[in-house]
Amino acid sequence: MKDREMPVIVGVGQVSEKEFDLDSSSPVALMEKAVANSLEDAGLSSDIISELDTLAVVKSFREATKNSPEALARRIGANNAKQWLMPNGGNGPQYLVNRFSESIAEGQCDFVVLAGAEAMATARKIVKTTGNQPAWDEPSSTDPEFLVKNQEMSTKHEQKHGLWLAPGFYAMAENAYRHHIGVSIDEHQQEMGRLFSSFTEVAEKSTHAWYPKKRTAEEIANSSATNRFVAWPYTKYMNAMNQINQGAAIILMSETRALRLGIDRDKFLYLHGVADTIEKPLSTRANFYSSDAMRVMAEQVFLDTDLSMSDISLIDFYSCFPSAVEFARDVFGVSKDDPRPLTVTGGLPFHGGAGNNYVMNSIASMIDRLREFPGSFGLVTANGGYFSKHSAGIYSTARREPSWFRTSPEKYQRVIDSVRDVPFTENPSGDGLVETYTVLFDRDNRPSQGLVIGRMGKSLDDQNSPRFFSIVDGDSLLLESLTRQDMIGERGRVYLKEGLNRFRFL
């Protein structure tokens, strides 16, 4: 049997185009710049890219062209590389590192570039200024080949009841979490402010952060003219910011090749623990105040190592919204008063959340930091969809011994799949209880719609009570009142009207 190769990251590159005009870079152009920066970081000349055997691109929210991997390959001179597109999901960058590290270890590839970018700031400016869509298309005769199946993370039924909105879903998870831990609305609001204020302290010092400004807990927590509610209890400053121009790239290769190319060993970063999990569908999950898939991920990422959370010096928890950080903090056993910052970038609301590609930036930032502290370990987590897909990786300049391997995700995915499904109905009628909820706000900071996830029957503890999705039937005064008192467990009646399930409080 052939000896397994040791995968190693040798170069990372980021680009943040903070000053731009209508002719600013497309996502593919930003990726091109990020790849160039990663080559420079590794001390490699640009002509080496002709030897690239694998190129994987993270799908942009606004795809710039028909086949972005092909377009990037053409720009950087990697036309002979196998080209892949990673579908929607913020877990994508870490999943790619995990997946291709395994491919390198098994000798299936030897020289890999991962890249992704968003140019949403430019796109928005083009549309607002000209009324036209960006003219970013690059010629291609073929469709991209997806590395994994591209599929929606919510159903049409869920979407028409508001569950396609990320702020709305995560706000409902937040309210479920707050109720579960038994904290008052006001107290929890300030706690979220304190949590994300600590993130701004990191963003303030980052050269790549879109908003490098420290904000107080009160600024973040409290609704104001500049910080409206988006989906209660989330203010604008608690939301991932994707209206940015950012990209990142990672060079991954076998250690053998890296040594042959003469790359400085001080550049080498090794992946130690890895984990990739998939959560159950929204409708059948056990609850909305925790994630079984995240819990299993947190356990698995350490199982193939001799490490524990106490060995981790640097952390970047996925931070699209406060609930994502709170869930991660709980499953990894990190206390609120832990002195370790929970981000190396400043997080998606302040560093900027480059769509599906944010974690490429967080990995690159983590690697820059770990090179400053040789031998230390850093943890990166990634989350896609609605707590739908999770990936994690532990990084260090310390070499992984004796050899590299990745436990097949299929083995531990069975733990998640075995959790009992909550029964679900698309056609509820009768009395029900609020399992969790949120109130959506318009741009004038006025409540516009309420969303309720509920259970039929008379008890939330009844495991046989079907779950349902609905919108709130009521005026703005009612919606406003829902933000001032905890309505979880409250009774109401659900019924069908104009093709939508509606919930009226009793």
Short description:
By secondary structure, this protein is α+β, with helices and mostly antiparallel strands. The chain has helices at 27-42, 68-76, 92-105, 120-130, 156-163, 166-181, 185-203, 217-221, 255-260, 292-303, 322-331, 358-372, 409-417, 476-482, and strands at 7-16, 54-58, 82-86, 111-119, 229-232, 234-235, 245-254, 270-278, 312-316, 377-384, 389-396, 430-441, 447-456, 467-472, 491-497, 500-505.
Key terms:
single chain, 506 residues, OB fold (Dihydrolipoamide Acetyltransferase, E2P), five-stranded mixed sheet, five-stranded mixed β-barrel, 14 helices, 16 strands, 31% helix, globular
Q: Low-confidence parts lasting 5 or more residues at pLDDT below 50?
A: none
Order of helices and strands: EHEHEHEHHHHHEEEHEHEHHEEHEEEHEE
The mean pLDDT is 96
The level of helicity is 25-40%
What is the CA-CA span between the terminal residues? 69 Å
CATH architecture classification of the domain at 7-153 and 243-267: 3-Layer(aba) Sandwich
What's the count of strands? Answer: 16
CATH topology of the domain at 7-153 and 243-267, which one?
Peroxisomal Thiolase, Chain A, domain 1
Largest sheet: 5 strands, mixed
User: Tell me, what is the CATH class of the domain at 7-153 and 243-267?
Assistant: Alpha Beta
CATH superfamily name of the domain at 7-153 and 243-267?
Thiolase/Chalcone synthase
Shape: globular
Spatial sequence of strands, sheet with the most strands: 1-7-4-2-3
Radius of gyration: 23 Å
Based on helices, strands and strand pairing, what is the structural class?
alpha+beta
Helical element count?
A: 14
Question: How large a portion of the residues is in β-strands, by DSSP E?
Answer: 15-25%
